[in-house]
Automatic annotation (TrEMBL):
Pfam families: AstE_AspA_cat (PF24827). Residues 27-131 form the Succinylglutamate desuccinylase/Aspartoacylase catalytic domain. Keywords: Hydrolase, Metal-binding, Zinc. PANTHER family: BLL3975 PROTEIN (PTHR37326). Its cofactor is Zn(2+). This is Succinylglutamate desuccinylase/aspartoacylase family protein. It comes from the Bacteria.
Length: 225
């Protein structure tokens, strides 16, 4: 396994580090993004932990290529704000269209170069979806008809089995969000793309734990570990 650190959009004011983890054998490609919204810090901590665990040998990627961008929107993260404009509305919506923000363009260009089979985008949201279907906290979200749906259902079953408090259980949602990284990856790159949302009202350490476990489940589903 080989872990290398790089800089995305290095010559711009949007520069941010990312990691490439190459498994011992060839295999699928997965992109893990976090920090598209700069105030969702637990998801960023989980993504950074993923990169750090790979670099330290605590997590061994057996095959494939894993690309991790822990803090996509570094400028928004520095200010602890969601970001203006909302970066998750600026990814390309058609093959012939360009991203509406240079940072979204840089992220998508990197992904397109490597042709991801999977794209996991880590976020945080208000509310517990187990208590209200109108909120997004504690959900996995994918596009309708996505090939990721079976894996999402299995992962939700695993997660909920380990969570004693049923109010914190995860649910599956299926909808398109034009301009988001998830929908762009599904539509234009044909990736199995999923948004992971944990609930802001939970302790930060718990949110990091949930995000980390979910990513590990996706890595197993895809055959990386």
């Amino acid at each position: 396994m080989l872990v290398t650190k790089h800089v995305l959009a290095a010559s711009s004011t949007h520069s941010t580090p990312y990691y490439m983890v190459r498994g011992a054998a060839s295999g699928p490609v997965m992109v893990v993004t976090s920090g598209v919204h700069g105030n969702e810090t637990a998801s960023m901590a989980a993504a950074q932990k993923l990169a750090d665990d790979c670099a330290a040998g605590r997590l061994f990627i057996q095959r494939g290529l894993l690309i991790i961008i822990p803090r996509v929107n570094q400028k928004a993260y520095d200010k602890k704000i969601r970001g203006n404009p909302d970066l998750n509305r600026t990814f390309p919506r058609r093959l012939s269209a360009k991203a509406k923000h240079p940072l979204a363009s840089a992220v998508f260009r990197l992904a397109r170069e490597h042709g991801p089979d999977w794209w996991i985008d880590l976020h945080e949201a208000n509310g517990l979806s187990q208590l209200s279907s109108r909120v997004l906290g504690q959900t996995l979200i994918t596009n309708p008809g996505s090939r990721a749906v079976p894996a999402c259902r299995r992962i939700i079953e695993h997660m909920n089995h380990s969570i004693a408090n049923r109010d914190r259980h995860f649910n599956l949602k299926q909808h398109e969000l034009p301009g988001s990284a998830r929908t762009a990856a599904a539509r234009l790159l044909k990736a199995r793309s999923v948004t992971v949302e944990t609930c802001w009202s939970l302790k930060r350490s718990v949110r990091i734990k949930y995000q980390t476990r979910i990513v590990h489940h996706f890595l197993r589903e895809a055959g990386f570990i």
